[in-house]
Amino acid sequence: MLQSSNNDIRNVLQSVYDPEIPVLSVIDMGIIRKTENIQGEAVVHITPTYTGCPAMDTISSQIRMALLAAGYPAVKIVQELSPAWTTDWISEEGKQKLKAYGIAPPIGKALDAAGLEDLHPLCPQCNSANTELISQFGSTACKALYKCLDCKEPFDYFKCH
Amino acid sequence: MTKAEQLSQLLQLADNALIIGHRCSEWCGHGPILEQDIAITNIALDYIGQARNFYQAAATLINENQESFPGFAFPLSEDNLAYLRDEREFRNHLIAELPNGDWAVTTLRIFLFSTYQYYLYTQLKDEDKTMVGAIAEKALKEVTYHLKWSSEWVIRLGDGTEESHHRISKAVDQLWAYTGELFTKGDPLQEQWLQKIQSVFAEADLTIPENTWMHQGGTTGNHTEHMGFILAEMQFLQRAYPGSQW
Lengths: 161, 246
Known about the structure:
heterodimer; A: GMP Synthetase, Chain A, domain 3; 2 domains; 4-stranded mixed sheet; 3-stranded mixed sheet; 4 helices; elongated; B: mainly alpha; Ferritin; 9 helices
C-alpha cells in the first residue's frame, strides 16, 4: 500500500513541467531524488539544477500545488545539494524530448575538463554537425547558444553540467 | 571549528558572492553586445544563487544555536543577512566591491576572482563534509564556466588590438594589488591560483606587476569607499519597507 502510494506521487510529478522547458517533466529532468509517503504526507526530495536557477522556486511551488490537488493533505519539499545534479540524470526520453523541442541535448558526460572543450552538438533542426558556438551563456543559465552553419538556424544547447 | 568561526566562514563566502554578483548585475542591459550582456547577467545570477545558499546556511546555523549568537533577532532569514547588516559587518574581499570600470576591468576581475573560487570550492568540495562542501560542489560546476568565459576575454583583449591590450594592462595594474587579500600567508591555494593566472597571462601577453604591495581590509570589515554605495542601493528597499517581498 505504502509502495503504491509512493508510485502515485511519482505519477503526479510526471505532470509537473519545467517552466522554462515545458516539454520536460521534473522526472525527465532528473531532479527528483526521492519520494516518500509518510502517513499521508507527500515528501519530495529535489535537487536544484543550477545554483541560481530562478525556475527552482516555481518548480517547488508547482510540485506542491500538484500534490495538494491530487489529494495529499500535506506536502513537504526537501532540497538536497549533494551529490550535485548533473545533466547525466536527464532521462533518455527527456533528451529526445529536448531535441524535438529544438534544444540540442547535452553531449557526453557531466562537466569535467572535456566538457569545456570545443563541442559541436548536432543541429536539432537539420542534424548537421557543422555547428559553431556563439556564447557559452544562452537564454537561461543551463543553455549555451550555437548556430548551425548549414541551415543557418541559431539554437540552444543544453550544457553539460 | 567553533560556531562563530563557522558563521564567519559562511558569511565571507556569501558576502563575496553577493557583492561581486551585484557588480555583475549592473551590466544587465549595458553589455557591449547582446550575447555578452546575457553571459554576464547569467554569471550574476549564479553568484546571487551561491550567496543565497550560503546565507540560508548561515541563517540556519544562527537560528539553531541562538545561545551562541546573542545580538541577532530570531528567527532570521537569508534576507536579514544580505539586507540588514551594515558595511563594517560585511566580510567580502575588496576586489569584489570595486567598480566595474570598463569591460577589461570587469572581465579581469571575474577572471582573478573565479580562479580563486575555482580552487577554493574544489578544496571545500573535497574536504568539507558540511553544508559548505555541498554548496561548493554544486557551485563549482558554474564557476568552471565563469573561469573559462573570463579567461577567454583576458586572452582576447590582451592578445587583441593595441587599444584592447592597453586597456587590459591598465586593468591588471589597477586590480593586482587587491589579489593579495584573497589568501592568508602560506595558503597552498595561492600557488595553484598563481599558476593558472600566469598561464593565462602568458597567452594574453600580459605580465604580473612587480610591485607586490597589497591592499587589506575586506575580511575585517574595513572596506573601500565604494562599498557604502553598493549597500545603499542594494539595501534601500528592505530598510525603507522592512519585510517586503518580491
